[in-house]
């Protein structure tokens, strides 16, 4: 049987396109969140699994919202540390195994959810889980104690510093914060409206280049379109860099360390101590919680030797009362 050349060509074209599509599909889980291959969910029985990267993906909501024994609202800065933390916590307290629920969105957005009674909507899905513990920067935690959402005391446990996240190999040859002023450089920067890290970044930009540098990065370049503000920088900044949408972004050092450990095409540029800003992480029990015992156990655990050892895997440092930070 003779096969016409145009049919062969069409078949080869189709096969080539199918191969590209399969390659892209195969790569998608590596580049698109979630990045931990299901580890950030302690449910023993997950039922029907349905995750489609870039289409249906709830990367920052973990566990089962149906009557958890402990609910944690965690600033997204260490979403990657939660899986080993939860695993170790459940080993210490087996009665909580598979019964934790946690969210890892920016602290300001978590406060909005608390004020909405714990109700959140993502896409077409709405659910309600009130928190037992709120974990964010020390100043943010103290602020919510003052507003009455949390009860004292604020419990500090770890610290972190800033870095410049860039593509592997640093193709734009970024050497420091002052380079971020270049109009040609595409930046992904946390939104000051609800991402607490933005305050520390602004302080570091001023240390490196005065108010002029901070204004250039956060105002002039935003107006020009060469700085794009994120809604959830711990997901968007690395993803945009890997997609080529951004050349760089200032993040916490631990976030860059995680991306490197995950094998993603990401690296970082150190910021000298004289220009850097230290964050102090803290937590507090939510006022009126019905899980006060579990909440206190979590706060005790994350500042224990075992909990802090997990944080240190990603570059965090244990909190020292003599340290100054924000």
UniProtKB/TrEMBL annotation:
Pfam families: SBP_bac_11. GO terms for biological process: molybdate ion transport. This is ABC transporter substrate-binding protein. Residues 1-23 form the signal peptide. InterPro entries: ModA/WtpA. GO terms for molecular function: molybdate ion binding. Keywords: Signal. Transmembrane segments: none annotated. It comes from the Bacteria.
């Amino acid at each position: 049987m003779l096969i016409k050349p145009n049919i062969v060509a069409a078949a080869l074209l189709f096969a080539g396109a199918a191969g590209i599509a399969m390659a892209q599909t195969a790569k998608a889980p590596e580049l698109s969140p979630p990045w931990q291959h299901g580890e950030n969910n302690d449910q023993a029985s997950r039922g029907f699994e349905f995750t489609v990267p870039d289409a249906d993906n709830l990367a920052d909501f973990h566990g089962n919202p149906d009557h958890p024994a402990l609910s944690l609202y965690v600033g997204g800065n260490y979403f990657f540390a939660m899986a080993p933390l939860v695993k170790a916590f459940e080993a210490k307290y087996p009665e909580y195994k598979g019964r934790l629920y946690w969210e890892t969105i920016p602290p300001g957005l978590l406060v909005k959810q608390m004020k909405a009674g714990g109700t959140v909507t993502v896409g077409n899905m709405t659910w309600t889980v009130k928190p037992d513990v709120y974990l964010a920067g020390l100043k943010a935690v103290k602020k919510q104690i003052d507003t009455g959402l949390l009860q004292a005391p604020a419990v500090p446990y770890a610290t972190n510093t800033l870095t410049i996240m860039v593509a592997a190999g640093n193709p734009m040859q970024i050497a420091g914060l002052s380079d971020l002023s270049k109009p040609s450089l595409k930046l992904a920067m946390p939104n000051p409206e609800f991402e607490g890290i933005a305050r520390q970044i602004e302080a570091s930009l001023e240390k490196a280049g005065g108010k002029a540098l901070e204004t250039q990065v956060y105002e002039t370049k935003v107006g020009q379109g060469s700085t794009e503000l994120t809604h959830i920088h711990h997901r968007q900044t690395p993803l945009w860099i890997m997609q080529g949408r951004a050349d760089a972004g200032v993040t916490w050092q631990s976030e860059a360390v995680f991306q490197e450990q995950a094998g993603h095409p990401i690296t970082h540029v150190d910021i000298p101590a004289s220009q850097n800003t230290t964050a102090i992480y803290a937590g507090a029990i939510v006022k009126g919680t019905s899980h006060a015992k579990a909440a206190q156990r979590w706060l005790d655990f994350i500042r224990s030797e075992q909990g802090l050892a997990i944080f240190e895997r990603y570059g965090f440092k244990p909190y020292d009362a003599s340290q100054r930070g924000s």
